[in-house]
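Project outcomes to date are best conveyed with an example. Our students and postdoctoral researchers have been running inverse folding experiments weekly, and each run begins with a structure described purely in C-alpha cells. The record below, which covers 277 residues, was selected by the lab manager from last quarter's runs and is presented without edits.
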C-alpha cells in the first residue's frame, strides 16, 4: 500500500526538520539527524552541528592555565584523539584549560599589515572582524599552550597556519620595542599523521612560539604516524588504541605542567633579550 504525500505536507515536514552544518566543508544537511557520512567531503556525522545563529567568540577576562588548540580540519578525528587525551590528563591533574577546535571558528587570513610598515601591525590586532582577537586574549591570559596538528604534506594544517600567522601582532610587540606579553610561557606540541613529517611539522609549529618568547617544555614534542602501507580509514582506530601514543601525550602534558609551575614568566621578566625576526 502506498501513501501519497502532498507537496504541502513535504513543505511542512521540511520546515520542521533541523539544519546541520559540516564543520569541515560547510555542507548543509536538512533532517532530524546529521548524515552518517558527509556527501560532500566524506566526514563522519561527528563533524556536524545543528545550524544555529553563531555568536562571535569572546573572552571573559579570567586567567587560566592551558590553552588547547586542535588545528585539524576534523574536530572529532585523529587529531581530536590527541587533544582529548591531553584534556583528560589536564582534568585529572586539576589544571584549568580551555579547548578550541579551529574548524569551528571564524579565522581569517592575516592582513600582513606589517608589510606596509612595522608600526601598522598592532596589538590588539587591527582585524577585529573574526574570532581571533578573543584567542589572542586567551594566549596572553593563559600560562601555557598545547597545540595539536595533523601532518599535511610534511607540514601543519592550513587552518593552524592561518591561526599562527595571526599571532604576528603579539610577536611584533618585541620589534616595536614594547613589552612582550608571552615571554616565558610554555608550549607543548602534539602531531599525528598517516605518513612521514612528524618532527618537521612539530618544529615548524614551534618556530612561531619561539619567536614570541615561549619555552618548549622538556621532551615537549609527541608525534605518531600510522604508515602509508595502511588504508587511511584504519588510522582513527590505531590512534585511539595506541598505548604508546597515549603514554607520550600524558608525558607531554605533565612536562608542560611542571615547566609551567616553575613560573618562568615571573622569573625571567626583564631578564630576557628579545631577538625576533
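After processing, the design step wrote out the following sequence:
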Amino acid at each position: 500500500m502506498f501513501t501519497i504525500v502532498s507537496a504541502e505536507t513535504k513543505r511542512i515536514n521540511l520546515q520542521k526538520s533541523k539544519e546541520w552544518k559540516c564543520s569541515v566543508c560547510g555542507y548543509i544537511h536538512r533532517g532530524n539527524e546529521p548524515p552518517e557520512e558527509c556527501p560532500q567531503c566524506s566526514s563522519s556525522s561527528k563533524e556536524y552541528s545543528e545550524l544555529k545563529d553563531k555568536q562571535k567568540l569572546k573572552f571573559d577576562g579570567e586567567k587560566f592555565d592551558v590553552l588547547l588548540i586542535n588545528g585539524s580540519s576534523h574536530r572529532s578525528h585523529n587529531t581530536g584523539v590527541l587533544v582529548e587525551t591531553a584534556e583528560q590528563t589536564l582534568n585529572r591533574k586539576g589544571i584549568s584549560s580551555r579547548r578550541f577546535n579551529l574548524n569551528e571558528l571564524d579565522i581569517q587570513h592575516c592582513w600582513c599589515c606589517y608589510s606596509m610598515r612595522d608600526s601598522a601591525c598592532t596589538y590588539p590586532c587591527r582585524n577585529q572582524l573574526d574570532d581571533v582577537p578573543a584567542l589572542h586574549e586567551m594566549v596572553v591570559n593563559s600560562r601555557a599552550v598545547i597545540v595539536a596538528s595533523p601532518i599535511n604534506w610534511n607540514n601543519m594544517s592550513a587552518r593552524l597556519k592561518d591561526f599562527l600567522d595571526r599571532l604576528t601582532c603579539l610577536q611584533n610587540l618585541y620589534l616595536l620595542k614594547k613589552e612582550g606579553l608571552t615571554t616565558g610561557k610554555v608550549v607543548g606540541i602534539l602531531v599525528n599523521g598517516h605518513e612521514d613529517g612528524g618532527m618537521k611539522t612539530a618544529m615548524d609549529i614551534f618556530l612561531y612560539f619561539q619567536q614570541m618568547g615561549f619555552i618548549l617544555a622538556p621532551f615537549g614534542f609527541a608525534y605518531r604516524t600510522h604508515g602509508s602501507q595502511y588504508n587511511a580509514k584504519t588510522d582513527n582506530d590505531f590512534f585511539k588504541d595506541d598505548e604508546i601514543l597515549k603514554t607520550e601525550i600524558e608525558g607531554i602534558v605533565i612536562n608542560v605542567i611542571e615547566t609551567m609551575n616553575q613560573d618562568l614568566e615571573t622569573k625571567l621578566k626583564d631578564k630576557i633579550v628579545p631577538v625576533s625576526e
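The mean pLDDT is 91. Strands lie at 18-22, 28-31, 48-50, 64-70, 97-101, 142-150, 186-193, 215-225. The training component of this project remains on track.
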